[in-house]
């Protein structure tokens, strides 16, 4: 049976943090660029819309990109840390990483603000993981043709 | 002089407020009041709307309520899935965790694989999916018993292997191990199968 365990689409754990940080920065910068340029254009006088758009985007979009990058980098770091500590991969890693990231990012506001932010981050990641779990459960009931397995029961293994 | 002008203003203002809150007032939409700041209304009363406008308003309200209920249903479904997956002892996450613990405690396997044994699932083709999730399959055999089949990979510093889990549902509805074995390749043969639960003969009978 060919060993399909090597994951060639993602980097191994320390380097995937850089990947995620960069990806999050681009998402924040591009999204923030569009959002703030539209907002700047709307809030400018009619003959200065282009200038207003560019000015607002230059001022705000890198900030948003930086915020997203910090969130993504911290999340990926805690995810890799949990994978190393627990030595297994399951939905708990993402949820706990989201919670710790939320807590760390709000830590300057004190313990109570950090707790609230951790709960919010954890529930957000739980919702995102829930979609993946729902899809996994639905594919568990599907039947697909596969190679016959060694054990000669009257049922078949079906995997992706 | 200033005070008198203020009291002069306040008198009719108070009267307006009293009239605004009395039950037998005329419809606000037709009132022309001096102070638009107090009694400004942009929404019409229900009885002021004509019949088609009432239909439109009712449709809008029911559509909004339907949207809220749909969102609540989707959120509730996802929360149920998450809760049952994380906290139930019959979920695939718990089964994977239990199977991995058994693999780690097996002396022969930990001698063969090395000391910290790491368990993960199938790598996914999409870049966005970070965790290699454990997929499982539910099947029914010829006697009508339900089976749960799962495969995950175990990796240690010295070696790696594939672990196959085959569970059957007993009378209480709980999953029981029927077969649990690990294939470790490269032991002289193509792969060596180490049984933790069950044996090579248990699959003959369902």
What does this structure look like?
The complex is a heterodimer of chains A (160) and B (206). Chain A is an all-alpha fold and 160 residues long. Chain A is 71% helix and 0% strand. Chain A contains four helices and no strands. Chain A has helices at residues 13-42, 49-86, 91-105, 111-140. In chain A, helix 1 runs antiparallel to helix 2 (49-86) and helix 3 (91-105) packs antiparallel against helix 4 (111-140). The longest helix of chain A is centred in the middle third of the chain and has 38 residues, at 49-86. The radius of gyration of chain A is 22 Å and the shape is elongated. The two termini of chain A are 14 Å apart. With 206 residues, chain B is an alpha+beta fold. Chain B has helices spanning 2-21, 51-87, 92-105, 107-113; strands spanning 118-120, 136-140, 146-155, 160-169, 175-185, 191-197. At the A-B interface, helix 3 and helix 4 of A face helix 2, helix 3, strand 1, strand 2 and strand 3 of B.
Reconstruct the topology from this structure.
The complex is a heterodimer of chains A (160) and B (206).
Chain A: H1 13-42, H2 49-86, H3 91-105, H4 111-140
Chain B: H1 2-21, H2 51-87, H3 92-105, H4 107-113, E1 118-120, E2 136-140, E3 146-155, E4 160-169, E5 175-185, E6 191-197
């Amino acid at each position: 049976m060919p060993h399909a365990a090597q994951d060639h689409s993602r980097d191994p754990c320390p380097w995937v943090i850089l990947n995620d940080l960069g990806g999050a920065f681009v998402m924040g910068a591009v999204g923030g660029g569009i959002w703030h340029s539209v907002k700047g254009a709307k809030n400018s006088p009619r003959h200065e819309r282009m200038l207003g758009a560019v000015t607002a985007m230059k001022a705000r979009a890198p900030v948003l990109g930086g915020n997203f990058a910090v969130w993504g980098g911290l999340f990926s770091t805690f995810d890799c840390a949990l994978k190393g500590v627990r030595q297994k991969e399951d939905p708990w890693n993402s949820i706990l990483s989201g919670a710790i990231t939320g807590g760390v990012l709000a830590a300057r506001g004190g313990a109570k603000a950090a707790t609230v932010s951790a709960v919010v981050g954890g529930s957000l990641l739980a919702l995102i993981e829930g979609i993946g779990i729902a899809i996994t459960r639905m594919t568990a009931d599907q039947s697909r043709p596969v190679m016959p397995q060694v054990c000669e029961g009257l049922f078949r293994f079906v995997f992706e | 002089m200033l005070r008198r002008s203020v009291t002069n203003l306040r008198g009719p203002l108070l009267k307006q407020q009293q009239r605004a809150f009395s039950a037998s007032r005329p419809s606000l939409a037709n009132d022309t009041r001096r102070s638009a700041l107090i009694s400004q209304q942009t929404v019409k009363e229900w009885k002021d709307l004509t019949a088609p406008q009432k239909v439109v308003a009712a449709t809008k309200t029911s559509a909004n309520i339907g949207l809220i209920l749909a969102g609540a249903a989707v959120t509730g479904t996802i929360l149920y899935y998450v809760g049952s997956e994380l906290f139930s002892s019959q979920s695939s996450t718990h089964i994977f965790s239990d199977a991995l613990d058994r693999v780690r405690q097996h002396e022969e396997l930990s001698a063969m694989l090395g000391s910290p044994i790491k368990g993960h699932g199938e790598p996914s083709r999409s870049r966005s999916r970070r965790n290699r999730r454990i997929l499982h399959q539910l099947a029914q055999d010829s006697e009508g018993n339900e089976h749960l089949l799962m495969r995950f990979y175990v990796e240690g510093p010295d070696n790696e292997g594939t672990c196959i889990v085959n569970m059957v549902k007993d009378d209480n509805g709980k999953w029981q191990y029927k077969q649990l074995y690990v294939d470790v390749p490269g032991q002289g043969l193509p792969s060596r199968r180490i049984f933790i639960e069950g044996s090579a003969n248990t699959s003959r009978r369902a």
